[in-house]
Amino acid sequence: MLPAPSPEPPTPAPSPASTSEPTVAPAPSNESSVAPLARSPVQSPRSVVLPDDEGSHGDQLEWWYYNGHLSGDDGSEWGFHFVIFQARQPGLPTAYVGQLGLTDVGSSDHVEGSVFFLQADAGEGGELTLRGGDWELVIDESGHRLTGDIGDASLTLSLVPQRPPALHNEIGWLSGPTGWTYYYSWTRMGAVGSIRAGEAEVQVTGTVWMDHQWGDFTVPGYPAGWQWFAIQMDNGPDLMLTLNRDDEGVEADIWGTYVEADGNAQALTEQDHGISIEELATWTSPHTGGEYPAGWRIVVDSLELDIELWPLVDDQEIRATPLTPVVYWEGKVSVTGTRSGRPVSGRAYAELTGYAESDISIIDFAPP
């Protein structure tokens, strides 16, 4: 079970055994966290504490990521992902990149875009305000509010957590060969807002998943990478799973976190809980030539869970730009199967990295 947030500063925890990387983190090892790392290690990692850790930190890389499943007041069905990346480098101003992807399930249309900005205000007590152009992310005691605009489409949402946060690897800290990261998720948030697509605007409601991650780490590139799943089941539980691949593109390990409807969470490992992820189909991108998994059977023996996931739209690829030079697939998928022999269903988002090479190099950010 994951520890509950504490209003008091945490006592440094003993260095836990690493399980693996989080959603978009480096591939981990099974070494102790006090073993030498490629980047600056935290020798005595602390537990994540909320709301204090909702805000910005001083580490080299940090992001606030959201995905969700939205229903329009006109009967339309949507999926989205929204993320703001924060990067710090010596001698350079703190840089921010926002990225938004929107999927209209009914029309199979998918649009995505990015924006770069340098303005941000980190409040006290875990409050956060990030603003750039028509983009905004605010986190305070009333909840989370986000706005993203990519020209042809925009998204505005207000979000309120519906269950306690999940601290991955029990204290919300993981390490690996390319660094360390703090990582927690709000696995289920209620959402209300609007989507603009072209000239049309629709009011939406739905359910959102949020990840917050920060640390001193690098993100591996092709063919290394991962398959990451944020699963919300209709009967209540939530499940995050990550399958990591090494520098040769070979499966390294699988790990995750299972959250019951009451918020109780359990760390999962491949060996101890009998996790398997089987690819059932593939899709080849007409844009990049990358070949992605496009259907999965996921089994977790300890949970008596056996489910299949299928993309609702094939082309949900996020293509490289000078601001975001990594190519990946980030999409809305369906969930059906059984738990303890009884039917279950749900919705999920999948993130697939390291399946396509990018021919774009990241731009240099020079001080003004």
Task: Tell me about this structure.
The protein has 368 residues and is an all-beta fold. The chain has a single domain, classed as AttH-like fold (Beta Barrel), CATH 2.40.370. It is built from 1 helix and 25 strands. The strands form 3 sheets. Strands 1, 2, 3, 4, 5, 6, 7, 8, 9, 10, 11, 12 and 13 form a 13-stranded antiparallel β-sheet that branches. The longest helix is centred in the C-terminal third of the chain and has 4 residues, at 270-273. The radius of gyration is 19 Å and the shape is globular. The protein starts with 60 loop residues before the first strand and ends in a 15-residue tail after the last strand. Residues 1-39 and 363-368 have low confidence and may be disordered.
What's a quick, concise take on this entry?
With 368 residues, the protein is mainly β. The chain has one helix and 25 strands. It is globular and about 50 Å long.
Helical percent range? Answer: under 10%
Question: What's the total number of strands?
Answer: 25
Looking at the overall shape, the CATH architecture is Beta Barrel
Order of helices and strands: EEEEEEEEEEEEEEEEEHEEEEEEEE
Described by strand count, sense and barrel closure, the largest sheet is: 13 strands, antiparallel
> What count of structural domains?
1
Relative strand content: over 45%
How much is the average pLDDT?
85
CATH superfamily: AttH-like domain
Pick out its properties:
368 residues, mainly beta, AttH-like fold, 13-stranded antiparallel β-sheet, 10-stranded antiparallel β-sheet, 1% helix, disordered N terminus, disordered C terminus
